[in-house]
């Protein structure tokens, strides 16, 4: 079961590409805090200094005393969170100055409804607070001089007694561009992976082109899917590049369409990968030349349904990134994910998708076990080794996935929570997004190598051996009704593979041959001389014809075809000197 969830995480990590977004986020009264990592210009480089700016778009209620907005704002580095706020009489940490805290003497009346930052504290980076009173930027900015995990929080006092909502855009501008700092390594890593895909594809297409006239349909599937994966990875890399250079918020329609398009490609990659694994585990192409039509259609329908739910899951991931996640740094704001009100949509998409995946996963494992057992009982040693390599490949990929989980766990739980967050944000997207992509590349490349076109792969697919038991016999043309199979396999007629009859020979010739073989003294079945060109039989036939013509007394018009050139020339000269001789 753990392996199943591990593989589930491996496949759906690819959909994380749909969550790529520029570092311009939106804060509201329901989602009033946000944290993200940022690199300094010295550590990563770039044309400009990194900074954080805000833009107040709207607010509900104004301050009755001033008639303007009164939204408190704070920006700090996460290491300094313990230096913020005060501890009340009940032992709770409070970050917003309230009337209760004023009465207890923990803050002043001038700080009412503002973030509490005590004087004379030592911080890792500067802590900046402000009160936004007007729409727009309010001339507020925060320069990032140190690499770290920076947080912003906002609070709008509830003057009317309820939630005083507001809408604010925050720009986390890095020196290198608009990608989140945790995702900037993916820009170069996906570019490198695209190059590796392209090189491996060129190497793989060489044997495909060499054996193009004898490819199995499964090998055509793998070759075409290899091309698709290479193109998809190049497009994924280009998406990160487009996002890094995008300076508009919200995202332009073209960029949003590109994100949706890449998400659909990722969903198709996952579903078609399951389809390939499923038909291979069922023995398609190598163990059995065809699968029953009903079984093949059921595989296609199951994977198609999985594809539809995967597209919905990708849309869900993209939608949730457009709303702001909960990253609570205070306990005064009622921050929550704006998607929580639609949590039923999450269940409606995620639960069926997980059930379909688990069903396909266990179907693949059970089919792989059954196919391996059948090959072992039928003593199909070569094919058995292929499936054993496939199982080792899948098992090894899961071990690599577990290794990534262990590494991430060590990073998170090796120290206190604050230090773990400070380290983990740099490797989070690499471990959860790029590492599964590398594992997927290894698995698919391994499958393509195992089922690569060779000089014997075509004959290997057609070969059968005598089974040890009739119940586990691999079906042949004589034991299976071929009408239940599709017509997409390379062998158009399996019966011709098990028969010595020439399919182009007429029925009469076949009957003559059959009657001739009934003669025990007939030598027609003997092997022919491979160096015999038939010239000796032709000479004997010409001699017999010449003897017949001589016996009939008509030898003037007969000439052997193998006369010398000199005789032909002499005869031609006689004809020119006496043209009437021929007529006489």
From TrEMBL:
Extent of the signal sequence: 1-22
Source domain of life: Eukaryota
Subcellular location: Membrane
GO biological process entries: retrograde transport, endosome to Golgi
Pfam short name (any one): GOST_TM
Bias (Polar residues): 514-528, 569-584
Biased composition (Acidic residues): 558-568
Record key words, sorted: Membrane, Signal, Transmembrane, Transmembrane helix
Domain PTM1-like N-terminal, first and last residues per copy: 33-174
Segments of skewed composition (Basic and acidic residues): 533-550
Bilayer topology annotation: Multi-pass membrane protein
Region (Disordered): 514-584
Transmembrane segments: 187-209, 221-240, 260-286, 298-318, 344-364, 393-413, 433-451
Entry-linked InterPro entries: GOST_TM, GPR107/GPR108-like, PTM1-like_N
Domain GOST seven transmembrane: from-to ranges: 185-457
GO cellular component: cytosol; Golgi apparatus; membrane
Alphabetized PANTHER family for the sequence: GH17801P, LUNG SEVEN TRANSMEMBRANE RECEPTOR
Entry similarity comment: Belongs to the LU7TM family.
Identification of the protein by name: Membrane protein PTM1
């Amino acid at each position: 079961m753990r392996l199943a969830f591990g593989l589930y995480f491996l496949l759906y990590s690819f959909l994380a590409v749909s969550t790529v977004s520029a570092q311009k986020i939106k804060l509201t009264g329901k989602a009033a805090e946000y944290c993200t990592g940022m690199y300094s210009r010295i550590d990563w480089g770039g044309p400009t200094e990194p900074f954080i700016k805000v833009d107040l778009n709207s607010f509900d209620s104004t301050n009755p005393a001033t008639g303007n907005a009164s939204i408190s704002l704070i920006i700090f580095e996460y290491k300094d969170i313990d230096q913020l706020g005060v501890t009340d009489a009940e032992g709770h940490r409070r970050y917003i100055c309230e009337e209760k805290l004023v009465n207890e003497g923990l803050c002043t009346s001038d700080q009412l409804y503002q973030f509490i930052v005590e004087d004379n504290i030592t911080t890792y980076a500067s802590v900046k607070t402000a009160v936004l009173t007007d729409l727009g930027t309010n001339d507020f900015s925060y320069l990032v001089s140190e690499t770290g995990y920076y947080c912003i929080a906002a609070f709008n006092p509830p003057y009317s007694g309820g939630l005083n909502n507001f809408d604010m855009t925050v720009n986390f501008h890095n020196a290198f561009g608009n990608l989140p700092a945790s995702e900037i390594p993916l820009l170069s890593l996906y570019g490198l992976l695209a190059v590796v895909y392209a090189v491996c594809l060129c190497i793989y297409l060489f044997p495909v082109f060499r054996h193009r006239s004898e490819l199995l349909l499964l090998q055509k599937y793998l070759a075409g899917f290899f091309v698709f994966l290479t193109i998809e990875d190049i497009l994924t890399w280009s998406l990160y590049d487009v996002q890094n250079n995008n300076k508009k918020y919200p995202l332009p329609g073209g960029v949003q369409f590109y994100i949706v398009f890449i998400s659909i490609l990722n969903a198709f990659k996952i579903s078609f990968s399951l389809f390939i694994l499923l038909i291979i585990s069922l023995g398609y192409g190598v163990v059995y030349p065809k699968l029953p039509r009903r079984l093949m259609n059921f595989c296609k329908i199951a994977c198609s349904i999985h594809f539809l739910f995967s597209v919905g899951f990708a849309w869900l991931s993209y939608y949730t990134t457009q709303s702001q996640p909960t990253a609570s740094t205070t306990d005064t704001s009622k921050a929550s994910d704006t998607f929580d009100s639609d949590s039923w949509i999450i269940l409606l998409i995620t639960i069926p998708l997980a059930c379909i995946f688990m069903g396909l996963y266990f179907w693949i494992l059970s089919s792989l076990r059954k196919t391996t057992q059948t090959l072992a009982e039928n003593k199909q040693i070569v094919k058995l080794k292929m499936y054993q390599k496939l199982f080792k490949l899948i098992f090894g990929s899961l071990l690599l996935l577990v290794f990534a989980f262990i590494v991430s766990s060590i990073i998170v739980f090796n120290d206190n929570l604050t230090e773990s967050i400070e380290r983990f944000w740099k490797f989070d997207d690499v471990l959860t997004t790029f590492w599964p992509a590398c594992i997927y590349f290894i698995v698919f490349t391994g499958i393509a190598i195992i089922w690569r076109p060779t000089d014997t792969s075509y004959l290997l697919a057609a070969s059968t051996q005598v089974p040890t038991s009739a119940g586990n016999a691999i079906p042949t043309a004589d034991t299976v009704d071929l009408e239940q199979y599709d017509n997409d396999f390379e062998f158009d007629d399996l019966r011709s593979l098990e028969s010595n009859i020439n399919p182009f020979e007429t029925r009469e010739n076949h009957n003559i041959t059959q009657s001739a073989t009934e003669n025990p003294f007939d030598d027609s079945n003997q092997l022919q001389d491979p160096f015999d060109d038939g010239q000796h039989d032709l000479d004997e036939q010409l001699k017999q014809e010449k003897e017949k013509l001589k016996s009939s007394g008509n030898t003037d018009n007969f000439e052997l075809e193998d006369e010398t050139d000199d005789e032909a020339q002499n005869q031609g000269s006689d004809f020119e000197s006496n043209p009437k001789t021929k007529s006489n």
